Amino acid sequence: MPASDDVTAPPVVLLVGNPNVGKTSLFNALAGMRAKTANYPGITVDLRKAMIHVAAVDKDSRCQATNEIELVDLPGLYSLETASPEEEVAARSICGEFRGELSRLPDAVVVVVDATNLARTLVLAGEILDQNLPTIIAVNLIDAAESSGTEIQFAELSEKLGCPVIPVSARKARGLGELREAIYELTKPSKPQLPIARQPCVAGCSGCPFAARFEWADGVAGASVRHTPGKGVKLEWLDRLLTSRGIGLAALLGVMLSVFFLIFSLADVPMSAIEDGFGWAGEVVGNLLPTSPLSTLIWLPIATGISMSVFALAYWLNETKWTRTSTSIALVTSLVIGCLPLEDFRSLAIDGVIGGVAGVVVFLPQICILFFFITLLEDSGYMARGAFVMERLMRRVGLPGKAFVPMLSAHACAIPGIMAARTIETWRDRLVTILVLPLLTCSARLPVYVMVAALLFGDSPWKASLMFAGAYLLGLLAAFSTAFLLKKTVVPGEAAPLVLELPNYRMPSLRNAWFTTVERATVFLRGAGTTILLISVVLWALATYPKLPDDRTFSTEQEQAQAALEYSMAGRVGQIVEPVFKPLGFDWKIDVGILTSFAAREVLVSTLSIVYGLGEDGAEEPAGLVETLRRQRHPDGTLVFSTATGLSLLVFFVLAMQCLPTQVVTKRETGSWRWAIFQFVYMTVMAYVAALVVYQSLAAAGYA
Amino acid sequence: MAIVQVPASSLADVPPGPYVCQQVHAEGQDAVRLKRLGVCQGRMIELVGRGDPMIVKIGASRVGLSRQLAKLVVVDSVSDSKSSPPSPSLPETLPASAF
After folding, report:
1. Would residue B24 count as lying in a domain?
2. Do A570 and A695 belong to one domain?
3. Is residue B91 part of a domain?
4. ipTM of predicted assembly, 2 dp
5. pLDDT at B86 over 60
6. B90: which chain A residues are within 8 Å (Cβ-Cβ)?
7. Which residues of chain A are within 8 Å of residue B37 when distances are taken between CB atoms?
8. Is A505 contained in some domain?
9. Searching chain B, which residue's CA lies closest to the CA of residue A498?
C-alpha cells in the first residue's frame, strides 16, 4: 500500500521502463528544464527528478485542480530480476526498499512501454502490476508505430491490464496532457486509499517465470494490436550493413571521425569565448580589488566574506551539507585567506581561483558537443550497432563492446568517459574500462602535444602530424594492452558475454539531446568543479609559497616570476626530484611543470613559460616559447630540449595519470580510493618506464 | 564459466532461420541477461545473422548475442516442435478473462 506518512512531502511518481523505450525523452518532455540530478545518499547512481504540476484536463472549468508531484526517472531495466547496480537501484525503488528519500513505496508508477515492440516491453509492466502499486502504462512512440502500420486498441489494452493506458509520443509531445491527468487521478489528495489486489499476471508457474511472463505479454499484446503489413520503412538492409564485419567497422570509424571533426571545429568559438570571458573576469576582479593595503579592520571581513561566498558556491555545487566540520573548514580557511597580504589575495583570486577553474572549464564546450552527438547517436539506435561491431575486437583484450562509448568520450575528457562507463552492466567490465580510460588522448593533452610538435618538428608539418597520430595510437595501444594485462592479473576473468538489444532505428530528437547535454554538463561541473577549485588553490599555494625574500631585486617582471617559482615549494620539489627524472632527460624545470600540471595537463605549457622566464603571457605566443625552449642548455652545454627529451616528454604525457580531477571521479565511481591509487601508480610507472626507454635509446643513438 | 555439455542443436551451430528455444543452460547473471530479453524456454527465436556475436530476432526485437552464450541455448527447428507437445513445465497461457 502506498504510504506517505509525511503529509508535507509531495507524492512520488516513478518513471520506469526498458532501455530504449524513450523513457528519458518522456521525462524530459514532462519535466523540461525543471529536472535536477539528485544524488541519493548511499547510491552512486545519479537519479533525475523534477517537481511537476499535474492537473485534471478540463477545458471549461476555470478553477482546475492541480497537484504537485515529484517525478523520478529511474534507470532503465528489463526486469525486476536485475543484472547491474543501476537496475538494482531501479528495482529496489519500485519495491520501496531503499534507505533515505526513496525508502517509502512510490505513490504511483508510470511504466513506459514501446508501441513498436509492445509484447516485449509489456513483460516489465506485468511484473510491476504484480506489485499492486497504483500504475499507469504510457505507450510511447505511437507516432512511429502508426507510421509502420501498427494500430493499438488502447481501451482493450487498459481493460486487460486493469490500469490506465495512455498513448504518448515524447518526441511529438502528444498525449502529455492526458498522462498528467492520469497521474493526477492516481495521486490527488482526496483519493481514498484503497488497497490494490490485482490478479497476478502470471499464476501458478512452476517452470521459467520469464517464459510465463512472455507468454502473458504476447497474449495481451496480440489481442490489442492490429498490424497492417507492408507499411513503414524497412531498415533491415541497413542493419545488415552496419553490423557486418568490414562495412560495419568502416562505418563506425567514419562516424567516430566525423564526431571528432565536429567537436574540434565547433568547439573553437565557444572555447575562445570562455577563455576571453575568464580573462575578462580576472581583469574585472583585479580592478575591483584594492591595490593599496586597507586597514585590517576593514579588509579582514571583506576578504573573509569573499572567501566564504566562494565556499558557499562550491558547497552548493557539490551539494555539501553545512555540517559542523564543513562549516569550520570554510570558516578557518576563509579567516586564513582574510589574513593574507593584499598582493597574495589578488594573486589567489586571479591566478589561483579564476585561472585554475578557467583551465578546466575551457574544455566544457567540447564535452557538451560530444554529449550532444552521442545522445543523438544513442537515440537513433546506432550506438548499439557500434558496440556490437566493437565487441569482436574488444573481447580479445577483455573489454566489453559497450566500452566503446566511454572510450569515445574519453578522447575528449576522461571524466565523462568514466561516468559513461555506467552503461556497462557487470562490475568487472566496468572496472577494467574505468582503469584504462585515462590512457586515451584527452583534449588537455593536446596543448602539450602541440608544444612538443612545434619544438621538434616545427619545420615539417607531416612529421608533426605523424607524431600526433603516433601519440593517439600509443594511448589506444596502451589502453588495450593494459586491459589485456589486467584480465590476466589484477582483475581476472573474461568480459561478460554480449547480450545486447539492437533497438529499432529512430529519428533522434534534438530537444532531447539538448536536455541530456545540459544534464550531463551539470553533472560534470558539479562532480569535477569543486575538486578542480580545490586543486587549483593548492597548486597555486605550492607555486607561491614560500615567497622570495624582500631584499632581492630583479630587472624585469619575468625574471622575478622565474625566481619566485624557483624559490617556491613547487620549485624546491622540482629540484629535489630532479635525480628521479634525470634518466628521462628532464631537468628540474620540467619537473616543476609535471607537478603543476596535476590539475590539468595543459598547465605544463604555462608553467614552462614561467619557469623559463617568459612570464605567464609567454604561453600565449607558442612561437616565442618554442624559441626560448630551443635555446635552453644544461649546465654542461648540451641542449635541454633535444629530440630525445622532447619525445620522452611526449611519451610521459601520453601515459601518465596527470589529472587529479579524474582520480576523484574514479574514486566516486569505483567506491574506493584503492582503484584511484592503483590507476595512478600503474600509469605513472608505465609512463616512467616508457619515457626512460625512449630517452635512453634515442640518447644512445645520438639524438640527445 | 561452468562446463556444460553442449548438444548438437545449440543456437551456435544452426543455420539462420526460425527456432524454438528448448532450454537455456546459462547460470547466474548470464541466465538473467538472456531470459529477460526473451531467450527462454518455449520462445520463438529467429537466427538472423551468424557470426560472433550473432543477431537473433525475438518477437519484434533484435538482439546481439555472443557465440559463447548461444552455445548454451538449445533450440529445436519449428516443424519439430509443432509435432511434439509443448514442454510440460510451461504454464498455460493466462486467459485474458483473468482481468
Report:
1. yes
2. yes
3. no
4. 0.80
5. no
6. 207-208, 211-212, 215
7. 78, 120, 499, 501
8. no
9. B66
